[in-house]
């Protein structure tokens, strides 16, 4: 479509700009940008971006109805399956901590269990043969609608308005059919907000490379043996030669 999928577009560019503003702490600027994205409508006044319904998730495990932008790799499913079968290292760490809501379809439909470990089904070949499943097979999600709501939540948290921060997070949770009201008794301050936002990011962006940056921007410890230096990516040779 004209506004999402495999095309870089106006809303995707603004989404990345909002991400950048939030990363450097310019929360109000980021918030203002997200407003245009989440309220965008087409010629029939229908929202351009909406959350993928539960009924469509098995056919559409990348939930691309809420994507602002994604890349395409024709060999993605083959490459992932080879790595999945060869290493067995693509499992979900700390499943019981991260996926603590049995109503959440990211838990019930986007994970599979092998032995004692859980794996994301986002990149595994679908058993459903359809146009949607073929789109999913080559799709690499890059910018999501959900991230815009998380950015809005960060803005409210930055001004100590945790009630509205929770409301923004709950919009995503409602879109994923989570149990309502769970965050009201948990988020009380900046520390608890960041902890829950990271958990939300872990559920939402599994396999998409975004969670790394949530730990990084909040300067939070992670669940693996990574060192502080591991959070700094090496510069390409072309940028280090004087």
Automatic annotation (TrEMBL):
Pfam families: SusD_RagB. Keywords: Cell outer membrane, Membrane, Signal. InterPro entries: SusD_RagB_dom, TPR-like_helical_dom_sf. The keyword Signal applies. Residues 62-213 form the RagB/SusD domain. GO terms for cellular component: cell outer membrane. It is found in: Cell outer membrane. SUPFAM superfamilies: TPR-like (SSF48452). The keyword Membrane applies. Belongs to the SusD family. This is RagB/SusD family nutrient uptake outer membrane protein. It comes from Butyricimonas virosa.
């Amino acid at each position: 479509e004209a506004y999402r999928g495999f095309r870089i577009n106006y809303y995707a560019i603004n989404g990345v700009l909002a991400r950048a503003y939030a990363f450097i702490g310019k929360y109000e600027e980021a918030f203002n940008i997200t407003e245009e994205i989440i309220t965008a409508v087409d010629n029939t006044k229908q929202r351009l971006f909406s959350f993928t319904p539960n009924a469509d998730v098995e056919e559409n495990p990348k939930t691309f109805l809420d994507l602002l932008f994604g890349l395409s790799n024709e060999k993605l499913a083959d490459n992932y399956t080879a790595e999945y079968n060869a290493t067995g290292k693509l499992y979900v760490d700390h499943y019981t901590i991260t996926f603590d809501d049995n109503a959440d379809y990211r838990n019930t439909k986007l994970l599979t269990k092998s032995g004692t470990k859980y794996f994301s089904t986002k990149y595994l070949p679908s058993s459903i043969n359809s146009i949607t499943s073929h789109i999913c097979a080559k799709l690499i999600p890059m910018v999501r609608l959900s991230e815009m709501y998380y950015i809005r939540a960060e803005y409210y948290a930055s001004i100590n308005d945790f009630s509205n921060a929770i409301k923004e997070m709950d919009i995503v949770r409602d879109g994923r059919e989570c149990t309502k009201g769970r965050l009201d008794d948990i988020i009380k301050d900046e520390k608890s907000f960041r902890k829950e936002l990271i958990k939300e990011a872990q559920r939402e962006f599994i396999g998409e490379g975004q969670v790394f940056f949530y730990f990084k921007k909040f300067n939070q410890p992670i669940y693996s043996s990574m060192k502080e230096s591991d959070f700094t990516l090496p510069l390409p040779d072309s940028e280090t030669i004087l």
